[in-house]
Amino acid sequence: MKVLYQTNLPGLNLLKRGKVRDIYDLGDKLLLVATDRISAFDVIMPNPIPGKGIILTQISLFWFDFLADLLPNHLITAKVEEFPEECQPYAEELRGRSMLVKKTKPLPVECIVRGYLTGSGLKEYLKTGQVCGIKLPPGLREADKLPEPIFTPSTKAEEGHDVNITFEQCAELIGKDLAEKVKGLSLAIYQKAAPYAEEKGIIIADTKFEFGLLNGELLLIDEVLTPDSSRFWPKEDYQPGRPQKSFDKQFLRDWLEKIGWNKEPPAPELPPDIIKKTQERYLEAYRRITGKELVFDA
Fold first, then answer.
1. Cβ contact 22:99 at 8 Å
2. Pair 92, 140 in one domain
3. Tens of pLDDT along 174-225?
4. How many C-beta atoms lie closer than 10 Å to residue 141's C-beta?
5. Cα 10 to chain center, whole Å?
6. Which domain, by its residues, includes 187?
7. Spatial contact of 12 and 2, defined as CB atoms under 8 Å apart
8. Last residue of some domain: 59, 82, 103?
9. Taking a C-beta distance cutoff of 8 angstroms, is the pair 130, 136 a contact?
């Protein structure tokens, strides 16, 4: 397997490079290519995680199918043979890690659902007893399950950190009707996916969805319920009142905290064992969710 840190596809119109995805503009469609880049604390690491882009794409494809009865999504096809002719010279590079999708107008908010108290939600709760304006019961500990999942939107920052906002602020940004709709859909997606994942040994502590509009229709876009957009905890190790083991990049974040990195570019080189252990966590999430194996060359 060829590790892919960055694409270079002459003849295709590169729209932007995100932290993980390279996005190409194909007129009324987009080509999303998930590279093996990994970021932490909003900084891209210098070393890729081999196969990560394939894992993320295949997990998203699983969930798009699983959630198809709840709402439409932006996927046209992930089969490289069905991509436009101008993509075909790059078929092998794109295989398994790319999606041809409808071009939508993305909403300017991240739609976050939290089922457990952790991360920025925990920090806010400890200060105020609330998360994004939602009052929570007193006495909750780190990683406690919330009485019910909550919708806690945030702004989308091109650079730096997203900022948590209240539902009212979300409504001001996108309109009350649309805000109500994405809140309802986000909670419905979580409430369908979380029990399935738990049966497979994964607790979805929190997750982030993105939506876009196309001809007035709301579509689920970007990636969905991956280890990059979610906190995945192994159910067998779950114990509230402390930080949890994870199948996501929390392992990498913990290592970066431990070495005392100041969270400013440039990021430090990742040792081979950290790369391998991070890859193993992503692979295990894929195995549990899909019930399939992905085999990569060492």
1. no
2. no
3. 999 999 999 999 999 999 999 999 999 999 999 999 999 999 999 999 999 9
4. 10
5. 28
6. 106-248
7. no
8. 103
9. yes
